[in-house]
Amino acid sequence: SSHQSEGKNKNNHTEFTSGDVPIAYVNIDSLLNQMEMYKDLNQSLQEKQQKLEANFGSEYRDFERQVTDFQQKVQKGLLTRKEAQDMDAQLGNQRVELENRRNNYLLELQEENVVSQNKVIDYIMQYLKEYNSDNKYRYIFSYSFGGGLLYASDALDITSEVLIGLNQKYTAEKAGK
Length: 177
Prior knowledge:
Shape: rod-shaped
Helix content: 55-70%
Oligomer: single chain
Structural class: mainly alpha
Number of strands: 2
Largest sheet: 2 strands, parallel
């Protein structure tokens, strides 16, 4: 190729002019913020979390009412010691069960969140294969604040065209569902 003959300097490094380097990058932060697929997945996770909080909120309030009710009965002497012990044990079990269900649900949400992130990254990578089917780029880097890529020239930024393509593809697939 013409790259080799272009001019080696004393250190034996090939000198590329910017047009020769088959490299581009995508700003992953702004890509995600504007990606329809990411927005959809995020929204569905938020709705689930809100539903979770609403459900558990009312269950906790019911539970607290039962506890208060029980304490009042004990204070008024309306329960035998045996009844009070049974009731206390039952409420203790209820509390543990509520906490366990809530923790399992939160773990499920976390797992769904991780899977959603993986789906989005996979979708981007699959799309970039199509996008680069002409092998125009040898590398397409992901740029994010604090990431491994500390500087890249704006001329190599393909974020906006990748974003447009990703959203078009996703919207078409969503409509086809």
